[in-house]
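WARN retry 2 of 3 for item q-0093 after timeout on previous attempt; input resubmitted unchanged.
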Amino acid sequence: MATVLAAVGIGSNLEDPEAQVRSALQALETLPGCQLVSASSLYRSAPMGPQDQPDYINAAALLETTLGPHALLDALQAVERAHHRVRERHWGPRTLDLDLLTFGRICVADTRLTVPHPGLTLRAFVVFPLAEIAPELEIPGLPAPGTLRERMGETDIVRLTPPPHQG
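OK item q-0093 returned
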């Protein structure tokens, strides 16, 4: 397969979330068939789901990959499992969440994967980090991340750190 640019959303709110996100970025650097191109700053945001959980630390990364979308999803889920991800309740707390946000200009909609990610345009904790590293990214059927960011205006998301990696 040709090289495709994929965007990945990263989040954690358990067991030292900042360290979890940084560790996930390191894991993305070593995924077979992938090269980490860019990573955003870390951001803090309130939980989207149940409010009886800690704030989240979020980031976004761009990967060049020769993997197909489902193989990349499998690789991302293996990283989640290595970080002891447990799926106990919808939108509940987690040590690590890796979401495949975009996969080049490819659209996927099946029982395992929907790309572009269906919540991408609604979530500041996804849009802000992605707009930081890829404001003009072409997303099939959607505005670019920079445009989405502008449309969101002010939010409660807080940028914590400068980018840890710029390839």
